Amino acid sequence: MIRMLFCLHRLPSLSLAEFQTYWLETHAPLVARHAPAIGLALYRQHHRLDDPVLGALLKGRRTDGAFDGVAELGWNSEADLLGGGSDPARRAANRALFEDEQRFIDLACSPIFFARSHTIVGD
């Protein structure tokens, strides 16, 4: 499976709670609705836990500018990820998702990378 990991920083105007609520309750259904058009086989949201006890575990780690969450998207193949670039439905879906992302994600500060997954433990 080809994965895209999107390391999210929220817009400065949003609290962490506002960001996570919008991401889960508004953006997630939009992704689910457009998943078939963009060939998406997996979508997971990883929300940052803002807990002082857990924060203590991070001492000594480089956590300045910690991400507010990570979106994990998966395609079954590179062809599914890249295919259909000229398909009007796919272009419209990508445009709708990007327009919504601008409402809650600081895109300039939110890196994306692609990876091939290797599961060592678990599913």
From TrEMBL:
InterPro entries: Dimeric_a/b-barrel, EthD_dom. Residues 12-107 form the EthD domain. This is EthD domain-containing protein. Gene3D superfamilies: 3.30.70.100. It comes from the Bacteria. It comes from Sphingopyxis macrogoltabida. Pfam families: EthD. The lineage of its organism: Bacteria, Pseudomonadati, Pseudomonadota, Alphaproteobacteria, Sphingomonadales. GO terms for molecular function: oxidoreductase activity.
